[in-house]
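Anyone opening a protein record will find just a pair of labelled lines. The record below illustrates this layout.
***
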Amino acid sequence: MKDNLKQPNLVPLRNINSTRLWIIVFGILDGSAGVIHGLYEALRGYTPTGGFYLENFGAFSLIPNYLITGIAVILVALSITLWTIGFIHKKNGPLTLLLLTILLFFVGGGVAQFFFGLIAWGVSTCINSPLTWWKKNLSKSARNLLAKRWSIFFVTGYILLASAIGIWLVLLSPGTNHNNVPIINYLCWSLLGAGLLFQIPTIIAGFARDLIRRDN
């Protein structure tokens, strides 16, 4: 009788599109950082920005008001997060992500978020790609080795990025002068740089994993 019971229809981990999963997590991280940027800008209130460059925010905005800028950043950043979760794999998913990234930059989302968005867009174009170049240039043994290491690269890279964003949020809040905390600045940027470097093997290992998944 136990044999007749229906088992949960769980999707095996090996069947998950690694590239799409990477984009989703990266988009959530990028969007969350953008929302934080927007909140701090909005907290400045209904005051003029004083120019295109938002001093101490590391951002540029065409909107000459902090409150409106902050609201716009929050809305666009949330759109990026929702888009990467639900629609990035669609036909025009990558193009829409690129347009949202550009829009986020011009409404005050921050230079770092723009850079993150460009990386996410570039990788997102490979979600439904046959990955012909990678299949040709990565041997079967190399693909197997990278695929086995993918989870290690994935987790380590995002821990480093999350740590950098956490330090930025708690100790280097947007809108404040950070010149008096050089050690914290150094630590934050070091973690951010290490986290971004880890994304390179993570992305390549994800491609290898997706190739194996398709072959199976």
In short: The CA atoms of residues 145 and 205 lie 8 Å apart. Residues 14-215 form one domain.
